[in-house]
């Protein structure tokens, strides 16, 4: 087969959810936006639902609709972008819970779907989504007289435990939600690791489920194996790939693999990372092309049918750091051309 294989270990995913659940002094939900951080929202969510997750979060109503098809009735599906115009039918027919972000959205929601449950997102300092303190104070009574079932906010600096912003947002959120009857939620993965004060009644981990930082005790969830299409010997002085950026100093064996920047292997990794034959590193030589990688396999006694870019040795955050980015971006960039294989659960 000429496509790479992205293997998703659903047992590892479930183990990560259970570990974060054990740390949470609260109900632990699961964030499966952006197609489950690129790993397949339906498969991921079904595995977590079987493990006991009852509440899922997505960014957009369309994602929520697809998720409802995968999960069936029962689990709560919360939509971070709230109730946008055009979303009403999906929210109503598929039983989604919009997280209302503004007065406009609140009016839209209670007019279009009176009695339909909703949550509210508050801005505790990040200035991205949610109602500001003044706006919330003005509509809180209306919201609480309707079917309000979750009040949440989001931390800007939770991956830096000592950042003052964490305590500031905790204080703001606590004050804004004083006396609220509905369950409250402040923490994603980073906030769970900050301790119980940050957990309230519901937590919302995403990246930690998928094996990424800041959850440094996470079990790796994915492996990425890329097939070797061709092997050639390159003489000293010859170059490899676009722009001749790598030139052989000695007799070198180069394997050409079927994946490139169109598959989320960032071009900045050119000449900078390595792939693995089992535990043996094999340096990437030359530029990453759209569909191909060229890898030094001179030191291998036998070239295997595929090399791995992500495995237990080289985790997503290792690769992300080499690419100057974060695990989140790496995962959600993994393209549509891989064969996604699910094991476990
Ligand atoms: C993406 C997101 C999460 C999950 O964050 P992680 O850092 O991946 O755990 C939680 N809440 C909101 C509002 C988000 O946008």
TrEMBL record:
Assigned keywords, A-Z: Isomerase, Pyridoxal phosphate
Pathway note: Amino-acid biosynthesis; D-alanine biosynthesis; D-alanine from L-alanine: step 1/1
Entry annotated with the keyword DNA-binding: no
InterPro entries from the UniProt entry: Ala_racemase (IPR000821), Ala_racemase/Decarboxylase_C (IPR009006), Ala_racemase_C (IPR011079), Ala_racemase_N (IPR001608), Ala_racemase_pyridoxalP-BS (IPR020622), PLP-binding_barrel (IPR029066)
SUPFAM superfamilies on file: Alanine racemase C-terminal domain-like, PLP-binding barrel
CDD domains: PLPDE_III_AR
Protein EC: 5.1.1.1
One Gene Ontology CC term in the entry: cytosol
Residues the record lists as binding substrate: 128, 290
Family under the similarity heading: Belongs to the alanine racemase family.
Known role: Catalyzes the interconversion of L-alanine and D-alanine. May also act on other amino acids.
Protein name: Alanine racemase
Organism expressing this protein natively: Rhodalgimonas zhirmunskyi
Phylogenetic placement of the source organism: Bacteria, Pseudomonadati, Pseudomonadota, Alphaproteobacteria, Rhodobacterales
């Amino acid at each position: 087969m000429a496509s790479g294989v992205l293997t998703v270990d659903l047992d590892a995913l479930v183990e990560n959810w259970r570990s974060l659940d054990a740390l949470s002094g609260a109900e632990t939900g699961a964030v499966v936006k952006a197609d489950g951080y690129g790993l397949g929202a339906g498969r991921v969510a079904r595995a977590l639902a079987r493990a006991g997750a009852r509440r899922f979060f997505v960014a957009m109503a369309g994602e929520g609709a697809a998720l409802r098809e995968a999960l069936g009735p029962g689990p709560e599906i919360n939509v971070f972008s709230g109730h946008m115009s055009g979303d009403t039918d999906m929210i109503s027919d598929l039983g989604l819970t919009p997280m209302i972000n503004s007065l406009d959205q609140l009016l839209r929601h209670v007019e279009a779907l009176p009695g339909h449950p909703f949550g509210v997102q508050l801005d505790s300092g990040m200035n991205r989504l949610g109602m500001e303190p003044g706006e919330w104070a003005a509509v809180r009574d209306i919201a609480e007289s309707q079917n309000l079932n979750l009040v949440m906010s989001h931390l800007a600096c939770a991956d830096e435990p000592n950042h003052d912003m964490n305590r500031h947002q905790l204080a703001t959120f606590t004050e804004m939600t004083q006396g609220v009857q509905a369950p409250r939620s402040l923490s994603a993965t980073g906030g769970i690791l900050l301790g119980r004060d940050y957990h309230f009644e519901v937590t919302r981990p995403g990246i930690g489920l998928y094996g990424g930082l800041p959850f440094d005790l996470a079990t790796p969830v994915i492996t990425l194996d890329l097939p070797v299409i061709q092997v050639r010997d390159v003489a000293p002085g010859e170059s490899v790939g676009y722009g001749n950026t790598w030139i052989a100093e000695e007799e070198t064996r180069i394997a050409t693999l079927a994946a490139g920047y169109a598959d989320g292997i960032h071009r900045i990794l050119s000449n900078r990372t390595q792939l693995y034959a089992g535990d043996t590193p094999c340096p990437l030589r030359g530029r990453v092309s759209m569909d191909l990688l060229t890898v030094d396999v001179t030191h291998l006694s036998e070239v295997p049918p595929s090399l791995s870019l992500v495995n237990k040795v080289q985790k997503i955050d290792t690769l992300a750091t080499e690419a100057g980015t974060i695990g989140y971006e790496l995962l959600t960039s993994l393209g549509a051309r891989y064969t996604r294989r699910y094991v476990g659960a």
